[in-house]
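ok so I'm stuck.
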Amino acid sequence: MTIPSALQTMQRPSLTLHITKKEPYRRGGTRFGGQPDVPPGFVWPVFTGTDDSGESETRPLSFLAQFDCAGLAPYDSGHLLPGTGLLSFFYETGLQPWGFDPHDAGCARVFWFPDAAVLDKAPFPAGLPEEARFPMRNIQVTPALSFPDWDDFLIQYPDVSDDEAFFAARQVLGTPVPDDGSKLLGWPDLLQNSMAAECELVSQGVNMGGDIMDIPRTVYKKAAQTGLDRWQLLLQLESKEDMNPELSFGDGGRLYFFLPREDLAARRFDRVWTVLQCG
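replied:
not stuck anymore, here's the structure
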């Protein structure tokens, strides 16, 4: 099989996100930042982690974005997302866990609220610093096709060695990274290595913060192959330090929210895993 043909077999639909001008409040609407719309009885998520001095700290998560699922449905050609309700994303932007440690569980949360009719704007919790409260912005959504980066492609086709032919084929297919690097679904646009094995192994309790050479090669390879098929990118979010310094992930990097496909199908968004990468 040629490289262009192989890429075609791996294509996935995605939704590119362009975060633009200030957005007036609209209950249940797709938007970045502001105050989230939540159902009665919602408990704002918190995360307990370790700061740079080694002290334990519990902080409320920052609200990042929410998506009107009914509004996205006409563009979600793979029918992966719920067809109704609201999907909301939170992350701890102060400590900014990287996602390679099983103890990072809970640093990011995704909520699906099936009944949009009962939602209302939530007040920010008192413990959430002003700098972790982000301005409300409009999100423009455009359907697109997504193809794997080199590292993910090699997991599927390990015998391919011609990276120049790969990148030439990607160019012909017209699959540039979105202008601001943000999208729903599709393949992740990598800033470092593939995250397939990382998601799979961390979910099994393996700390990936050390030397991956310490992991038996057969174990790592199997995890990469399983993870590539199993873990679906849910949201890729580019740094937005022009809006707020707290929105620089690492050093101008990206957040990647992943969910096992079986959990996405069952709407178990509490099983999301989030990884931070920066170049």
